[in-house]
Amino acid sequence: MTAIAVHQFAQCITCHAWSPDHSMVAFCPNNNEVHIYKSLQDNWERVHVLQKHDQLISGIDWSVRSNRIVTASHDRNSYVWNLEGSEWVPTLVILRLNRAALCVQWSPKENKFAVGSGAKTVCICYYEQENNWWVSKLIRKRHDSSVTNVAWHPNNLLLATTSTDGKCRIFSTFIKGVDTKDSRAGTFSDSKFGELIVQLDLSFSWAFGVKWSPSGNTLAYAGHNSMIYFVDEVGPSPLAQNVAFRDLPLRDILFVSERMVIGVGFDCHPMAFAADERGIWSFVRFLGERKTASGSKYGSQFSEAFGKLYGQPRQGVGNDSVESSRLRGCVHENCINCIVPLKEPGVSTIKRFSTSGLDGKVVIWDLEGQDDLSQYL
């Protein structure tokens, strides 16, 4: 097993984030509150409850440098929380949305954050020093449906989005007075705010969970059709490949290195995908699955149902068992909807990460000691 810690915090968790030193975790227990727990030796103690939103909180991100928390909610609002003394003080961000805010993420330099929404809109928010408030610039009329996820490129300028219209898009977020011209390097140095750099039409279903690799050379995102897509050389002629798997769809993904991605979703188990020396991506294995005497791999409830529908035996082609996720001895007992890195300063490779899901658990995973995966880290 690679799960080193399992914490049952609530009946259901919609999203979570860690403090810069990983001593505290903030999560939404499927309501309009943010609960912050602090680690005290072997126990966790609730130290703060952030109450300002009116509806379900759908996104949380905790900045590493400035120790600020940003939240987004179905009430169409976003708040930036600053720790003043022993209290978290909220500052309202005017998003100008007429639908729910669905996701939020700080930029690498933490001078901006992006909010995806059900209004087919992305809000790029930044701080105005003169007026002492947070304002937003909107990327409109680019998406045909809800924006499900956002991901910042390491250069702090490009933003990737996924949507329920099945497309992944990349935009420029250059804001005069916030970003410096020196940072506008690379192929897209002349792009203006909101300019569509590239639109990827690889998925014919809802798209979720987009992320950049640590170098920014590779982009990956998941489709609701049980496929994950990898794109190199993002631009006018991107190089794309997809990996189809027989298990349930993914909801979120994370690059732990240039050559390995961890995906989480409806199958209750994190899934490892890796690229070989030629750059060909493939599914490696589940994390934390129970091993059997025969060493066979497992499928999903979906696969099991189809096996019964077509009258296939439980030991299918190649002796691959099609037992359900619940029979694998999995750590999570329901859909995993969030994966967060536990990154060490100055290290690009991520060896520890956490997941949370609809079972109310936050699970910390460690890739150390996984001999079959170490070659990809």
Using the 3D structure, state the CATH architecture of the largest domain. 7 Propeller
CATH class of the largest domain: Mainly Beta
Q: What is the percentage of strand-forming residues? A: over 45%
The termini sit apart by 18 Å
The total number of structural domains is: 2
Stretches where pLDDT is under 50 for at least 5 consecutive residues are: 291-327
Number of separate helices = 2
Q: On the 0-100 scale, what is the average pLDDT?
A: 87
User: What structural category arises from helix and sheet content?
Assistant: mainly beta
What is the name of the CATH topology of the largest domain?
A: Methylamine Dehydrogenase, Chain H
Number of strands: 28
Strand order of the main beta sheet, please? 1-28-27-26
Radius of gyration: 20 Å
- Sketch the topology as an H/E string, one letter per element: EEEEEEEEEEEEEEEEEEEEEEEEEHEEEH
CATH homology-level superfamily of the largest domain: YVTN repeat-like/Quinoprotein amine dehydrogenase
